[in-house]
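Same chain as my last thread, 225 residues:
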Amino acid sequence: MRTLVIVPSKNVEATVGDVVRRVLGLDLGLDVLVVNDGSEDDTSRVAREAGAEVVEHAENLGKGAALRTGFEYAVERGYEAVITIDGDGQHDPAAIPQFLETIEKSGADIVVGTRMHAVGQMPKLRIWTNRTTSRVVSFLSRQSIPDSQSGYRMIRVRVLKDLVKSFVTTRYDTESELLIRAGRRGYRVAATAIESIYRGAVSHINPVADTLRFVRLVGRSLFWR
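reply #2:
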């Protein structure tokens, strides 16, 4: 399965090179695309030197917009699947074979990495938020998704061809929108257990603005057919 690893990135020059090298070092024939979402550091240079292709956003548009850029890149270039992984080191590239195995064995259209079996150093507020939003997204998508906020995923490109032009979100809520729309369209979502890695990095999530965006998404989704 020809697969593209998409790394939405903002100001991650200290970690993105290691992420790219570790993905390529798996020797699985994966291509890596770093979408630089308006970084103010050397994220692009470091990513290129590590072996990734890089697409630039001139200004910060949001994680959802960066993902959409990567999805459109994958569709246009004929990939069969994508894996999304963060550039800050919170997703271990060593788990990628699990995603490949799970999607093959389950026949699922999307595989989401779940951290909720072993939350590790995940902040207590994040645990509560993830469990609550996962229940809501599971209800709206009509299937069980234990960790809807995990950005570590594998998605068949046929799903993206069907859905990407319908997206109405551009930030962290895009990850929930994808699952809700996919579930409503009858695509199947599976999960694979991943490690929860927290190294004290500052989160880009705005607890007020991003919560309001999620609530707005939920309201909109109630009217989707």
